[in-house]
Each structure stands twice: as C-alpha cells, then as structure tokens.
Amino acid sequence: MLAGCTKVGNMEWEVPVGFVPGMRVPGRFFLSDDLAETVEEGAIRQLANVATLPGIVRHSLAMPDIHWGYGFPIGGVAAFDMHEGVISPGGVGFDINCGVRLIATPLTVEEITRKRELIEALFHAIPTGVGTKSTLRLSSGDLNDMMDSGAAWAVEHGYGLESDLEHCEESGRMKEASGAEVSGKARQRGMPQCGTLGSGNHFLELQVVTDIRDPEAAEAFGIRQGNVCFMVHCGSRGLGHQVCTDHLKLLEKATGKYHIAIPDRQLACAPVTSPEGKAYLGAMAAAANYAWANRQMITHTARTVFSSFFGLDHEEMPLVYDVAHNVAKIEEHTVNGKTMRLCVHRKGATRAFGPHSHDIPRAYAATGQPVIIPGSMGSASYLLKGTQTAMEKTFGSTCHGAGRVLSRTQAKKGARGAEIRETLARRGIIVRATSPAVIAEEAPEAYKPSDEVVRVVHQAGLSLTVARLEPLGVIKG
Questions:
Q1: Has residue 50 got a pLDDT over 80?
Q2: CA distance linking residue 182 with residue 84, whole number of Å
Q3: CATH number at residue 46
Q4: In the prediction, which pLDDT does 104 show?
C-alpha cells in the first residue's frame, strides 16, 4: 500500500486532496501492485504538487512508468483550462518533443543475413553521441522554416515521403510555433544538430514482430508477424534543451508577477494566455517542429541504408506512426459533458486518442491512434492503440516507455557496458554505441519491465496491445 494513497479501480490509485497543502484536485495514477513497490515517494509528491496549479482540470495524472523528474513527475499528464490555467516547462521537460516512430519493412528475420554489417552501416550513417553534428548545413533561414514547418520541411527537401506526414502526430507540425521566441543561443545549438540521434536513452533499434495480439488493428497499421521494423527515439537536441532553459528563467519571474503560489520552484509557470505563456508555447512548438524534422531526416537516412542492403524502395518502408511524449498542446476534450479547450501537458506520456477521434489519420479512424511504447535496451517494445477509456480518464493519454528505477550514475556503478553488450550478444542482440559507458547507463536493470508497464495500461484500458516487438540490434549515442 502506498502511504496516503487509495486504490480506487483496476490498476488505479488516488492521491487525495490534502496530501500536500493547496491541492485543487485529486491525483490519479495507474500502477500494478508490483510496480507500486518501485515508486519513489518524491514522484507521488510531485504528482500532488502539480494538483496545486491554477486551472487544473479533473485530476493530476501519472502513468505506470512514473518516476521523479523536474517539477512534474516523468509519466505525468495535466490539463489546464485555457482561461484560468497555466503552462509550465516542468510539464514538458528539457527534451521538447522527445518522441518515437515506428517504420515497417517487408523483410523477415531470415533475410537479415548481415545483421552486424547493417547495424554498423546505420551507426556510421546516423550521427550519434553528445554534441554530434550533422552533415547538413542549415542557414538561419532554413532553421526558421524548419521550426515553422516541422517534418514537412524535411519532406520538401527530399528527406522522406509525403505519406509520412499523414502518419505523424499533428502531421509533424504544431501551428503555434514562433521562431521569434527562440533565442540566438538555442539557434546556435540547433543549427548543426538536425538529423542526429543524440545521446542518453535515444536510439535506433532494429526489431522483429514476434506476437500479434490484435490482428485487425495490426493489419490496419501495416504490421505483420515475423516482419522486421525499425524504431527511432530522439527529440529536439540542444535547441529544445536551450528553449526550456531560457523560458524557465522568464517563467520564474512570471510566477511572481501573476501571484501564483507554487510548492516547488521547478513548477514555474504563467497563465496560458499571458505574454510569457504565449512566448513559451511558441518557442516550445518551434522546438517540437524541429524534433519532428529531426526524426524525419533520421528515418530517411535509415531507409537509404536499408535500400542499399536489400534493394528496397523507400515506399516499401512506410511510417506506421510518430508520437511525441514530451509536449504541451492545445486540445479539445469533453469534461463533465462539456467540450473544453485545454492546454494538455504530457511529460513522459504518449497521446492515445481513441477510435473516431479528431486529429488521427483517416486510415486509423476505426482502430484508434497507434501508440508506440519502446522498451529498455534488450527488452520488448510494443505497438498499442488508443481507446475511448483514455479519452474519458486521462485526456487521451497513456505511458511512454519502461520508466527508470535507477539513475544513470547508479546504473553505471552497477554494470559494465562491455559485459552488458556481451550478454545481449548472446541473446542475438547487437549493440553499437559511442562508448561502453553509454551502454552501462542504459542497462536493462535501470528500467521497469516494459511488459508490466504495458500490462497495466492494457488492463486499465488506456491503450490496448496490438503487437510485441523484440530487439535484434540497436545503435545508441
């Protein structure tokens, strides 16, 4: 039993008003009994702290991959009324629009006869690591256009297919973007990095579909048993980090200016409609668009490598979907029978819109939005579908991944990268990274089991499992 919290439903727990002073709404989170044993008290307190913010609607929410973060817990979801509510960088995070996309191929495992060579080719084609620079040379005007147009900029410049845009959340572009709110320092950091994977938990992974659990949805998504896919996980690189850093300073001042009482300075915020709130939303959206362009360019590079190995046309490797899991967006939701425009923060949480929802591809209307949940290095990833239950309970949101249980420092103390690489190699999983330390800090033991996290959201009805994908090889920064 989590102290002070009450189990109120299938995998559902409540943090009551009064858990911390000033809560305006209860907290709700989704956990199995097993995962409840791993939750940090600080993460639950952060969830309760979010419930003190002005204009919060219904609940402060967290998914089963909840863990301690900056201000908001990672795995957190919070929706704010557009008239009385706030926007907070702590509810998005430093890696704005960190997200994941899944690309299908017609290949089977048996056809991947040169797997190590393929992984090496991907590693050398896609720049990885801290501060890595792209071979692309952007002008200032190019960067402005990229921040405005997102994935469409990449496609227009030859990095991908028009059909890719149909299968991106927001079509790969937030219309609220304002490059004028992005600082010169953020621009300097972003100009040389588009088309790069970055470091930390970012990766490109080669996977095989090992288990179809919803044949109808899998068919709609273009996923078949035994076929090889690849998954891209990365975000807005140094540009997004700098946008967050810059606007946190402005919003710390705005918190006092608008007399907003917060229990933690990391919850710095401003009214959504205030000049400071609009400025952050514009800069964040510009960084989100940059991230969609980044993933689009990486996808094109990976397709080119696959094409050289297997003679595939790029059209034979369709994008299943691209989802963001660090973002704040203006959305319409039904609350107590009334349609409301809300500023929905998802930090380490994935949108999971149900069947016939607005803003999902026509091809997926009857099924619901594809939801992509990457596992930790060496563990399974999942493809799920959004549900009406998620629309009703979590503003159309679900988990985003396995969720850390060890910090990167703790993980490196407990394991050696070379040993992890050898262990995974014995399971047929090839890992290529810039250094053994990178592998150690992303050790499978540093994360909650993805199988259990996905089981919770499936049992709670927040998203339903479509397919399980096992790793074959991974490149990391």
A1: yes
A2: 26
A3: 3.90.1860.10
A4: 98
Note if 247 is an active site residue. no
**Which residue among the candidates 67, 167, 400, 458 is catalytic per the annotation?**
400
- Any idea which residue has 């960190």 for tokens? 98
The predicted pLDDT at position 135 comes to: 83
The answer to whether 75 and 63 are in contact (CB under 8 A) is yes
Which of 435, 461, 292, 298 minimizes the C-alpha distance to 368? 461
Contacts of 188 (CB under 8 A, 6+ apart): none
Token duo for residue 282: 């514009």
The answer to whether position 459 is within a domain reads yes
DSSP strand pairing (463-476 vs 430-433)? parallel
Element (H, E) at 202: none
Q: Name the nearest CA neighbour of 13 among 38, 44, 40.
A: 44
pLDDT in tens, 161-188: 999 999 999 999 999 999 999 999 999 9
3-state DSSP assignment of residue 92: coil
Question: What would the pLDDT profile of 300-332 be if each residue is shown by its tens digit?
Answer: 999 999 999 999 999 999 999 999 999 999 999
Residue 128 belongs to a domain = yes
Count of the separate structural domains present in the chain: 1
- For residue 200, the model assigns a pLDDT of 83
* 3-state per-residue secondary structure call for 125-162: HCCCCCCCCCCCCCCHHHHHHHHHHCHHHHHHCCCCCH
| 418 inside domain | no
Q: Which amino acid is at 154?
A: A
How long, in residues, is the chain? 477
| Mean pLDDT in residue range 32-48 | 92
Question: What is the pTM assigned to this prediction?
Answer: 0.96
Range of the domain at 111: 6-405+447-476
Residues 76 and 348 sit within 8 Å (Cβ to Cβ): yes
Higher model confidence: residue 416 or residue 300?
Answer: 300
341/208 Cα distance (integer angstroms): 40
